[in-house]
């Protein structure tokens, strides 16, 4: 086993010692997990709203608008709310990660790191 892999596996085999009680660690991890899932939805909706708004004047070959005016207006109204929620979730993720790092609680640092 090469040195980098050996160090990674040795680190994983060592029990984590955290000063936080189990309930607090679980609360932090749950908040981080939920915000991570919510932020993915926020990104998906933001992209969709931006596409709809950008295509507000596009028409089908029949001359009909691709998106109805009411839907475009609704997307324009939902966009700032969704961006605000995205920023709240981003801040929550950052706060949770800081607290988990300080407490020695493990979390995935990328989508490739899920166990």
Explain what the structure shows:
The chain is built from 3 helices and no strands. It has 115 residues and is mostly helical. Helix 2 runs antiparallel to helix 3. It starts with a helix and ends in a 12-residue tail after the last helix. The relative contact order is 0.15. The model has no long low-confidence stretch (mean pLDDT 82). It is 69% helix and 0% strand.
Instruction: Write down the secondary-structure element order.
Output: HHH
Please indicate the percent range of residues in DSSP E strands (runs of 2 or more): under 5%
The average pLDDT value, as a whole number, equals 82
User: What distance lies between the first and last C-alpha atoms, to the nearest angstrom?
Assistant: 20 Å
Net shape: rod-shaped
Annotation field: number of helices: 3
Low-confidence stretches: none
C-alpha-based Rg, rounded: 21 Å
Task: Report helical residue fraction.
Answer: 55-70%
Q: Structural class, please? A: mainly alpha
DSSP strand tally: 0
Largest sheet: none
Secondary structure blueprint with pairings:
Elements: H1 3-13, H2 22-54, H3 69-103
Helix pairs in contact: 2-3
